[in-house]
Amino acid sequence: MSKRILAAAALAATSLGLAVPAQAQQRIQFEFWYGLTGRLGEIMEEHCKRFNDSQTKYEAKCVGQGGYDKAEQNTIAAFRSKQHPTLVQIYDAGTVNFMLSGATYNAPDLARDFNMKIDWSGYFAGISNYYATSKGQMWSFPYNSSTALLYWNKDAWAKIGKTKAPETIEEWWDDVRAMKKAGVECGFAFDYDTWMPLEQFSAIHNLPIATKNNGYDGLDAEVMFNKTKFADYMKDWKKLLDEGVARIQTAQTGKTILQAFTDGSCASMLSSVANHGVVGSTAKPGLNWGVAKLPIYKDFKRHNSLVGGASLWILQGKSKPEYEAAAAYIQFLLQPKEEQWFADVTGYIPVTQAGYKAMVDAGFYADPKRQGREIAIESLTFTPPTAVSRGIRLGNFTQIRAEIRSELEAAFTGKKDVQTALDDAAARSNQILRRFEQTFKGKQLP
Amino acid sequence: MDRRATFDNLWLAGALVAPQILLVIVFFYWPTMQALYWAFSTQPPFGGTNQWVGWQNFQQIFADAVYWNSVRVSIIFAALSTALSIGMALLLALMIDRQLAGHKAYRFVYFWPYAIAAPAVGLAFRFIFAPDAGFVSAINQLAPNLWNPALKGWDAMILIVIANSWKMMAYNFIFFLAALQSIPRGLIEAAAMDGSGVLRRARDIQIPLLAPTLFFLLVINITESFVDSFGIIDITTGGGPARATDLMVFKIYSDGFKGLDYSMAAAQSIVLMLLVIGLTFVQFRYVEKRVHYA
To answer: Are residues B10 and B64 in the same domain?
Structure first.
């Protein structure tokens, strides 16, 4: 209806000889849906605008979906009713759903069909391995990429006479307890997000989360996180909570871990490097903070951490010009200049080695404002990815995260003991995996 | 009693009701049939080929302790929020009906909450009841950790009950007030002249005469609290902590849209639908008998 009115208005305008810029009409439009919200969502808009301003041939229409999970849900709903966008930003945990969907126009095909210049080996191995199929191809283009870091309050640590972030988990706990004695009420803030304690923790300790190499080798994988060191890690968290030296901070308690860290009330947290920019801009004046690699149990050898964030998927059922425009958009994002701009305003890491090198050469990381962001690259590339530090490929992983979250809530609020909670979470996760396997009966992971 | 309007021209009658029927089919029966089909098969997220699985989805639901937990909390929620919202609305309506000072302004304002979208209500109550930063955090200053809906299941339940009742109260209030105002003044005045006080008049005259309204609101409130609590939960508690507020309708949403298991969600909505039909039936069968329509 409104389209028709618009068209009629445009027709009227042109017939009256009014000035409608000629190129504006000829531009090839395509739709891009993104999941990021808040400041990061605004940056998505800006990135779009930079593309639209950079040339006159294509026009990206970027639409925020209000969250990663919403972006996935909405895309699926839209695809079912054939109203989907050409390009969509899908988070790490949704990768397997899209691989099996049969609804995608895969990255290598797009690159071939539209003569894109992509150096597939130029991506950081930690990133490309995460998203790759068993044949080593990425079906989507890695976009905003991050990894987890320890954020620590240097002033709080100074109270116990330390100037360095803890390297081992044992040391971290000692520090947190010592700080309590020195008057720091909350040494560590955490929530129920599994990305840091389960996924990143397991990767750097080279521990499996599920059989079949975390699911990469088949849909019949079973989770096993309740039997690894992760269970001890969660028991430690519970102990810190009971001792009153750590705190749970969520939106429901009034402050998220990010807010509790930036206002100085809690001395450390685990969070994504993507929040580096946000912490910098929202920290209370004078907050003296830094980032470090995730602490590790002292009996373990450190491995690479996991890439988090999202990649760009191209969906089927669109016209050739739309694909051409989407290809141009992706090509645009991969320019070192754009990678640097995006990394600068967010905290995300560059996805290609060339982009990273250009930034190092330009002195990007020497700026005190960005100090510590290079640690994310160091963490991500610490070792070549192993079969289990490579990533996680489990069906309906979003729901598995939710199950673990619910059980951790039960454990941390004292309704269940930690081991029982994790055993229950594992049992429920396996049910989800079996459901997924049944729903995709006869399909193989690519 | 057996007076019936008869209509000879059936074709015309059919044509006249056809648009209505069509709307009902498109927006009610068709989706219900679709849900029914999904409930007995597996539906891949992106669409495609369903496999028929018979009763398997239902068997899995009924064998799941987490599902029974969501039934339990749904019933608790429905009972508490219906009692609170009807009770408070009745109290307010009786007060307004007495035409106390300022009653016109109150009468006007009390309906407002119903006009507010559920997520906005949720956001406001999340803020008010936030244990670290909200208005209620004063309680925690006096007694640390007395109130913490992020950690304590019952606190979270109380939070959503209050938020939902606050909204539903406004709706109930209008109905009660309208019903009260239709009670002949003469009755109340006669009772007053006979020496009965405010409470006595309310108990013996007004509330019995409100019975049909009360019954109607009971049905509506129970149904609403089963099927329409989603917006508030999504914003305030997200079903937690540890599934303490994981109501049936919220579980359908999270299994279906977050978990992308459309079939399991469809099976659960069929169960929810049957439950609401069953409850309404019970109310009409047993509660309505005690209602006297004037």
So the answer is: no
